[in-house]
Amino acid sequence: MIIFGNVQFLPLIFLALLFPAAYGLLEFLRKRRVKKLGDEELVSRLLSSRSSSKGWVRIVLFSLAFVFFVIGLARPQIGAKLKEHRAKGVEIMIALDVSNSMLAEDLSPNRLERAKLSISRLTDKLMDDRIGLVIFAGSSFVQLPITTDYISAKTFLGTINTASVPLQGTAMGDAIMTCIRSFSLQSEKSRVLIVITDGENHEDDPVEAARQAAELGIKVFTIGVGSAEGKPIPLAGGGLMKDSGGNIVVTRLDEETLRKVAEAGGGAYIHAGAAEFGLNPILDAIREMDKEEFNSVVFEEYDELFMYFFAVAFLLFVAELLIGDKRSKTRLFE
């Protein structure tokens, strides 16, 4: 299968249709001017030795050359192969809270979007480390299996919102257990789990889950998103979330629980701030950890074909120039 490295150039191919059209229009206008001078065939022979047939051959060759040149610019590639890739790094699972309380705006633009932006920036700083993503609210599931494909990680990240998990709540313990099960079998010691949440209204025992993670050699870090004084929760249609009594719901950061989870998991708790979200200190800690060697199957780079298309375009351009536009004595192009 052929793919294109610079696919944005391909629409330029349609310009090749304009060249014959423009040439045909010019020929039509030229003939109209000739008719005004007298007999068309006689006047054409007296005024010029130019060959109309050669002109059409040249414009066709030029258009074909342009097509091949544009395809060359688009960088056609073929022949991808699977190969084994070995790298040393750390496996990182991120558990991201997507409950409605993450819509509070004590971080700009809100808690969830600020967390997503910080995770995206984290992937920009990773090298051979693996990353995976679990999202949770009242339940949890794997949004992105552990991978070194950082582009896919950003793509999956962009699709996340509070509707990604229909069941509301904050099942932090369940999210930690889901992360534990999501690490690869190749990883034994260099494993990090990062929980990003406001920690409010947890419905299970995240401290016990973190303790189990630590027993398996997984370091658990927690990042608290929000403020102790709290903020109301905006609704998608406007207004603020209210409880059954009609009172505005204010969501507050539960730092105490997050500290206990990080302590049980052998990691650290960090409060996300406006300037420093908290992932950079964790990344520094990751870089100090022992790296493990991972084997993975990746696509080898495609073979480039652009030079062949450029070569054909060059030959067609040369042929177009060599034909010229004079009448041939042999009347081959007349």
What can you see in these coordinates?
There is one protein chain. The chain is of the alpha/beta class and 334 residues long. The chain is 40% helix and 21% strand. The chain has ten helices and 13 strands. It has helices spanning 18-37, 40-47, 52-73, 111-125, 150-158, 172-182, 206-215, 255-264, 279-287, 306-323; strands at residues 3-4, 76-78, 82-89, 91-97, 130-136, 140-147, 191-197, 218-224, 231-232, 250-251, 266-271, 292-299, 303-304. A hairpin with a 3-residue loop joins strand 5 (130-136) and strand 6. Helix 1 runs antiparallel to helix 3 (52-73), helix 3 runs antiparallel to helix 10 and helix 7 runs parallel beside helix 8 (255-264). The longest helix is centred in the N-terminal third of the chain and has 22 residues, at 52-73.
Main sheet properties: 6 strands, mixed
Mean pLDDT: 85
Total beta-strand segments: 13
The strand order across the widest sheet is 6-5-4-7-8-11
The arrangement of helices and strands along the chain is: EHHHEEEHEEHHEHEEEHEHEEH
State the share of residues found in helices, binned by percent: 25-40%
Radius of gyration from CA coordinates? 33 Å
Q: Termini distance?
A: 43 Å
Number of helices: 10
- The geometry reads as elongated
Uncertain stretches of 5 or more adjacent residues:
none
